[in-house]
Amino acid sequence: MKQFNASHLEIKKWFTGTLYTHPYEAGWADEAIFFVMIEHEKGDGPTLTARVEISHDGVVWASDGSGPVTFSGKGLHPIKVQPNFGNWLRLAVEIEGGELFLNIQIHCKG
Fold first, then answer.
1. In the chain, which end has fewer C-beta atoms inside a 10 angstrom radius, N or C?
2. Where are the strands (E) in 1-110, listed by range?
3. What is the pLDDT along the chain (110 residues), one digit of tens a residue?
4. CB of 70 within 8 A of CB of 94?
5. Exposure of 79 in the CB half-sphere (CA atoms within 13 A)
6. What is d(CA 81, CA 14) in angstroms, rounded to the nearest whole number?
7. CB contact set of 43 (below 8 Å; sequence gap of 6+)
8. DSSP-based three-state secondary structure for 46
9. Between β-strands 31-55 and 69-72, what pairing exists: parallel, antiparallel or unpaired?
10. Phi–psi pair at 16, nearest 5 degrees
11. pLDDT at position 38, please?
């Protein structure tokens, strides 16, 4: 039987500019996906661009090799993590054009 874990990384806060989610240790998992929920917006159509980052130690970070994902508008926006990601995961996020009220989760299965 596979294991499954869902964890909140950022919970119901206003964000603008650059942010990095709390790191998550997921070396046990075979797959992972981030869920970014945009609940409220301030400004003229703010956009969010996110990149998945990986780390061997949870301190030094690198891109996972996939391109950035950009989206806007309220709702749930999934970001799939590339396979063979190693141990630590986080999202690097850039918000432009306003503020976003976010709830960011990671779901892992292995």
1. N
2. 4-20, 24-25, 31-55, 62-63, 69-72, 75-80, 88-109
3. 789 999 999 999 999 999 999 999 999 999 999 999 999 999 999 999 999 999 999 999 999 999 999 999 999 999 999 999 989 999 999 999 999 999 999 999 99
4. no
5. 25
6. 24
7. 97, 98, 99
8. strand
9. antiparallel
10. -150, 155
11. 98
Q: Which residue has the tokens 């990384």?
A: 9
Question: What is the per-residue pLDDT for 2?
Answer: 83
Which candidate, 6, 23, 18, places its Cα nearest to that of 78? 6
**Strand pairing class (62-63; 69-72):** unpaired
Q: Which domains does the chain have, with CATH numbers?
A: 4-109 (2.60.120.380)
- Which amino acid, 40? H
- Residue among 33, 34, 35, 23 nearest 87 (CA): 23
pTM of the model: 0.93
What pLDDT is attached to residue 1?
76
- How far apart are alpha carbons 89 and 91 in whole angstroms? 7
Tokens 């992972």 correspond to what residue?
32
**Can you read off the two tokens belonging to residue 33?**
């996906």
